[in-house]
Amino acid sequence: MFHGPIKPTHDPVPTHVDQRRGTRRHTSVLLIGRVRYAGGESACLVHDISSHGLMARFTAMPMVGDRMLIAVRGLPEVAATVRWVNGFRGGVEFEVAQDVGGVFCLRDDRGHVARTPRFAMQASASLRIGDLRLAVDILDISPGGVKLRSDALVPVGQAGSVLLPEINVAAFGSVCWTRDDRFGFRFCTPLPLASLSRVLGCG
Q1: Which of 46, 96, 104, 153 is surrounded by the most beta carbons within 10 Å?
Q2: How far apart are CA 200 and CA 192, in angstroms?
Q3: Pairwise CA distance, residues 43 & 200, whole Å
Q4: What pLDDT, on the 0 to 100 scale, is given for residue 114?
Q5: Class for domain 17-104, per CATH?
Q6: How high is the pLDDT of residue 19?
């Protein structure tokens, strides 16, 4: 699906795609998004968004013409192309116009909480529950929590902390669900983009 950078069809000046179209952009969104491209996966911080594209700060410097799949809360994963770059900031244009109303909703049409995209990863971590220290495997992560695997039984609602790799910082939270040897751990405070990027190895 991805064929690397494509040649831009116009001068890549840092002008919003939708400003050229004369349409209004939403501003100050500040949502963490997931970016997938030919070289892997990384995180970004979306600053503004419209039906035709978005502007974000990326953890891996983009290039004009780069093609990617980008996902944010309230939208499906969308194919997009980078149209302008200014350092680690860039503007991307969606291949297909999107209904961005869901981006600003905390719940979806079924009443479920709208969730930030999750990042698959494989890493070891240390979980502290009360006086217990458990070795766990991280299966995926988002700014709001992690999915963990452990042979030990962990009760739902139990508070504790998990020592995240790369940043060596304990993220405090509680166990929110369990299923067989897997369970979810919800952070008390969402991870900032810089910390999430370092945990993912792209910051």
Answers
A1: 46
A2: 12
A3: 8
A4: 54
A5: mainly beta
A6: 41
Q: How far apart are CA 172 and CA 112, in angstroms?
A: 24
Tell me the domain boundaries of the chain: 17-104, 119-200
Rounded-to-integer distance, Cα 96 and Cα 79, Å: 8
Across residues 35-60, what is the average pLDDT? 87
Per-residue tokens: 189: 């405070």
Helix (H, G, I), strand (E, B) or coil at 7: coil
Of 68-77, 104-113, 119-128, 132-141, minimum mean pLDDT range: 104-113
Q: Regarding the domain with residue range 119-200, which homologous superfamily does it belong to in the CATH classification?
A: predicted glycosyltransferase like domains (2.40.10.220)
* Both tokens assigned to 18: 């939708």
User: At residue 87, does pLDDT exceed 70?
Assistant: yes
Alpha carbons 200 and 119: distance in angstroms, whole number: 8
Give strand ranges (E) for the chain. 31-37, 40-49, 53-58, 67-71, 78-86, 89-94, 119-129, 132-142, 145-149, 159-164, 169-179, 182-187
152 φ, ψ to 5°? -80, 150
Are 17-104 and 119-200 in the same CATH fold? yes
Contact 54, 91 (CB under 8 A): yes
